[in-house]
Design brief:
This protein has 355 residues and is mainly α. Helices cover 73% and strands 2% of the residues. A two-stranded antiparallel sheet has the order 1-2.
């Protein structure tokens, strides 16, 4: 039975087991993020402060990256997965655990509404995650299966890469405060503004399954393990193959997505538009946009296209859209994609005129 969310009055989850499972989930998430994100990023922030660099561009030399080769495709694919595999595993683990360890009633009460408050809470809770758009996608999928509203799930998904405090710190050290402020403003608009509007547009899609909402966190007959295996198995079977294949396709297409730009077009509106669309589609590891932009600037790219890439590259990607494709309507995802491109263009124009 499914009815609109405004008529739901869920009961508070009862029992100590639900509390312990929620605490255990938080502990697992904190330990995983400490190992995969927080400690490595602390080390990288020290590197950025001393060298004003966080490494070479994953795209390689811009003068050579526009020439297609199977070897280049393989190299990018390998480099990408070497950079994200730990975070990808953590994302799938947490995305499956959120479905079986957190009380559905509590999540619905806090994040199940189409209000700006629910969107804001979800966006702020994404800040410690620091995941790229693809690694955060399994969590967005898990939240939607747990009856979280579209706007809240979108805010959590987009907020992970766009409000990543480590990335902003790296950017301030490597690029400039102007780029950092521009990226922060764009991140706030996408995380809270676009997600909220998308959630309001998808209000009629927010149908609540009363059986799932009333289901206990822990089945006394041993259903927890089977539910978790089913949840993680579903993610592995559906998300992982689509993820890997789409990354390979984009790795091959990058030779056309990032064409060699002549000096005369290095800061034109056409290139800003091109890179806004390219950045929305392409897939990168967390913070890779910084070294990509730093390298392209050194080869003569203008501040406008560079700013567009800084906004759109981390926000979303084609693989992440495919991963969350069953959790949101096509209209919602098209609205998000168009909004990312539009804000990328506006950011590029700001960079072109002000930097």
């Amino acid at each position: 039975m499914a009815i609109a969310n405004h008529s739901i009055q869920p009961e508070r989850p009862a029992g100590k087991k639900a509390v312990w499972f929620a605490v255990l989930f938080i502990v697992i998430a904190a330990l995983g993020l400490l190992y995969v994100k927080w400690w490595p990023y602390y080390q990288k922030s020290l590197l950025a402060a001393h060298t004003h660099s966080i490494g070479t561009s994953i795209l390689g030399d811009p003068s050579k990256s526009s020439q297609f080769s199977w070897n280049g495709t393989f190299q990018y694919t390998a480099q990408y997965f070497l950079a994200v595999w730990k975070a990808a595993i953590l994302g799938i683990l947490l995305g499956s655990l959120v479905q079986v360890m957190l009380p559905a009633q509590w999540l619905f009460k806090v994040l199940g509404k189409t209000s700006f408050g629910s969107t804001a809470i979800a966006g702020m809770s994404a800040i410690p995650g620091m995941m790229c758009t693809c690694c955060a996608a399994p969590l967005a999928v898990g939240l939607r299966k747990k009856q979280v509203s579209p706007g809240s799930a979108l805010a959590f998904w987009i907020g992970n890469p766009m409000l990543n405090p480590a990335t902003l710190i790296f950017m301030a050290f490597v690029l400039s405060w102007k780029f950092t402020v521009l990226r922060l403003v764009a991140g706030l608009l996408l995380t809270f503004g676009v997600s909220y509007l998308a959630g309001r547009m998808a209000k009629n899609e927010n149908q609540i399954d009363m059986e799932k909402l009333a289901a206990p966190v822990l089945n006394p007959n041993g259903g927890f393990l089977s539910k978790w295996l089913k949840a993680i198995g579903s993610m592995l079977l559906y998300l992982v193959p689509a993820y890997i294949l789409s990354v390979i396709v984009l790795s091959a297409a990058r030779f056309w997505l990032f064409p060699q730009i002549g000096n005369g077009d290095a800061n034109s509106f056409l290139v800003i538009l091109l890179f806004a669309i390219t950045g929305m589609l392409f897939v990168i590891p967390t913070a890779a946009e910084i070294s990509i932009v730093q390298t392209m600037l050194s080869f003569g790219l203008g501040a406008g296209p560079a700013a567009a890439l800084l906004v759109t590259l981390p926000a979303v990607s084609l693989p992440s859209f495919i991963m969350v494709g069953k959790s949101f309507s096509k209209q919602t995802l098209l609205f998000v994609a168009a909004s990312v491109v539009l804000i990328g263009i506006l950011g590029g124009l700001c960079g072109w005129l002000l930097f």
